[in-house]
Specification:
A hairpin with a 6-residue loop joins strand 4 and strand 5. The longest helix has 26 residues, at about 340-365. The chain has helices at about 20-30, 60-65, 70-75, 125-135, 185-190, 260-270, 315-335, 340-365, 385-405, 410, 470-480, 495-500, 525-530, 535-540; strands at about 10-20, 40, 55, 85-90, 100-105, 120, 140-145, 145-155, 160-165, 170-180, 195-200, 205-210, 225-230, 235-240, 245-250, 280-285, 290, 295, 300, 310, 460-465, 485-490, 505-510, 515-520. By secondary structure, the protein is α+β, with helices and mostly antiparallel strands. The chain is built from 14 helices and 24 strands.
Length: about 550
């Protein structure tokens, strides 16, 4: 990686990515692994540890990291191993009374064959440092630090990007495509005339990162990844960044004027016991529920926070942005490789917007009940009134917060219901069988591998039933120049997995979504491949006849 713009900056890159945070780096990985020439421009020269922000990497994100060969590397660096805790605790303070508890939260516990990777709690800087290394390992990618995109113009053939380094020097680079991953204050978004729509919460919040040697000695509830503190002094959300001294906290309803002394008071109020603490950083913020009116103009796209913002409750924000990067990355790579057509790029916003809107809705629902809404009299009382108050609080917590910590239906269960590159199903799918547009059902093979480990970088055809005629699909892919890997799973013909899939043949996209199922290659195999590669309309024009 480079630390500044210099005379050796390439004049052209196939893809320029504005912003080298987790979303931009993930897009570079998705592209670079396919040999696409990427230039990633990031203003920060180092990854900030002062404000860890995201701390939840969900099951779907970990599946992508596995595909990139990074899941184990991340877990080795994560300060909180999944075996340490899979709990969320609600309490009057860290040293106070427990009100309720959720276990197996946020995908941190295995669930049979449902997924190959459990979730992981890790500060954002751990992920970001790993992704920087991984991008730097790809010959086709260049990460330039201390540089930012300041202007973007385009024509039908290319995009012109003006780049400025920390000293104010400017350079110009052209690209076939640009991806704006430059966050809420996105220059790329402004340059293409896109605007956020939506709302902002009224209540302010105050983030604190602090060190407190010995605080664990006062924690009455055992290890947990989150502690929701319900008391009138400091209604807050608190969690450990490591197993020693470093913690994060969000104090609800606290405005921007809070100084270090007040921050220390809030920390002590959440602890419920006099402690020694040192504030490392503070971060006042207000939740935003917003999404852009358009995620693309011509050759320029938006992803991550540049395109959508949601409250952090449930831990979906970064994970949704990483999903954007995966979706857009493989599609741009396919177009640059010559086998993807215009509908493939059009499908990016069509497929991702419903996911982003659902995440905003779910996170907003999670925000309706925070520690402030759970306050009640007598929660710390030793008498019968205290016992009754805690029981009532526990009931309400279980009723209102379960969906926040057990959301695999949102993480894994969403379906691409409408897309120009996902053909409509013919007839009704059998109950319990896989459907087009859904994530491929998972299983572990007898040798311990995941069925996902067999999938190729591009399209993969799974042959599950012996004798199922599939050669027409292979010939169609070859004639259209579509990379297609065939995987023989006929040894699973009588396995429960075959019944879960419900078809003899399954075509799987690079993002592990089912593109098509059938018991034999369709008669119009070329038409199917043209739809999947985003060239159905072009293939019907006279010059492509």
């Amino acid at each position: 990686m480079s630390s500044l713009i210099d005379g050796q900056l390439a004049r052209h890159a196939q893809v320029v990515i504005a912003g080298g945070g987790p979303v931009g780096l993930s897009a570079a990985l998705e592209l670079g692994r396919r040999g696409v020439d990427c230039l990633v421009l990031e203003p920060r020269t180092t990854v900030s540890r002062a404000r860890p922000r995201c701390k939840t990497l969900n099951v779907r994100t970990m599946e992508h990291l596995r595909r990139w060969g990074l899941a184990d590397r991340l877990r080795e660096r994560a300060p909180l191993p999944t075996s340490w805790s899979q709990d969320v605790v609600f309490c009057t303070s860290l040293a106070g009374r427990e009100l309720s508890r959720f276990t197996g939260v946020l995908g941190l516990a295995p669930d049979g064959d449902l997924f190959p990777e459990i979730g992981q709690q890790a500060p954002q800087y751990v992920l970001e440092e790993l992704l920087r290394e991984a991008v730097d390992e790809l010959p086709s990618c260049r990460l330039v630090l201390g540089s930012r995109v300041v202007a973007v113009t385009q024509d039908d053939e290319s995009v012109t990007v003006t780049v400025q380094d920390g000293a104010g020097r400017r350079s110009v680079v052209t690209a076939d495509y640009v991806i704006g991953c430059d966050g809420p204050r996105s220059v790329v978004r402004d340059q293409i005339g896109s605007r956020y729509t939506g709302e902002q919460a009224l209540r302010p919040n105050f983030g604190i990162v602090f060190e407190s040697p010995g605080l664990w000695d006062h924690v009455r509830h055992g290890p947990a990844v989150q502690y929701w503190v319900v008391n009138s002094s400091t209604p807050a959300l608190v969690g450990p960044l490591d197993r020693t001294d470093t913690w994060w906290a969000i104090a609800f309803g606290v405005d921007r004027e809070t100084g270090e002394r007040e921050a220390l008071r809030l920390v002590e109020g959440a602890a419920g016991h006099p402690i020694e603490a040192r504030v490392l950083s503070t971060d006042p913020w207000t939740a935003r529920m917003q999404i852009v009116d358009r995620m693309r103009r011509g050759r320029v796209f938006l992803a991550g926070d540049a395109a959508h913002l949601n409250p952090p409750f449930g831990g979906h924000g970064l994970n949704t942005g990483l999903g954007d990067a995966v979706d857009l990355g493989w599609k741009i790579a396919a177009v640059l490789d010559g086998w993807g057509g215009p509908d493939l790029l059009d499908s990016y916003e069509i497929e991702r917007r419903p996911v982003q809107e659902r995440v905003i809705d779910e996170a907003t629902a999670n925000m309706r009940v925070l520690s402030t809404e759970l306050l009640a009299d007598n929660l710390d009382a030793d008498d019968q009134a205290g016992a009754e108050a805690r029981a009532a609080a526990g009931t309400r917590i279980q009723e209102t917060k379960k969906a926040e910590f057990h959301s695999l239906d949102l993480v894994l269960g969403l379906r691409i219901a409408s897309s120009p590159v996902v053909p409509a199903e013919e007839g009704d799918a059998a109950e319990g069988s896989a459907r087009t547009g859904t994530r491929l059902p998972h299983m572990f093979l007898a040798d311990g591998r995941s069925v996902y480990d067999l999938l190729g970088e591009n399209l993969t055809l799974l042959v599950i039933q012996p004798g199922a005629p599939y050669q027409a699909l292979v010939h169609a892919a070859a004639s259209r120049g579509v990379p297609l890997e065939v995987v023989d799973l006929t040894h699973l013909a009588d396995h429960a997995y075959a019944r879960r899939v419900g078809a003899a043949l399954v075509l799987v996209r690079p993002d592990q979504a089912i593109a098509w199922t059938g018991d034999a290659a369709p008669r119009q195999a070329l038409a199917l491949l043209d739809t999947l590669r985003g060239s159905a309309h072009a293939a019907r024009t006279p010059q492509n006849a």
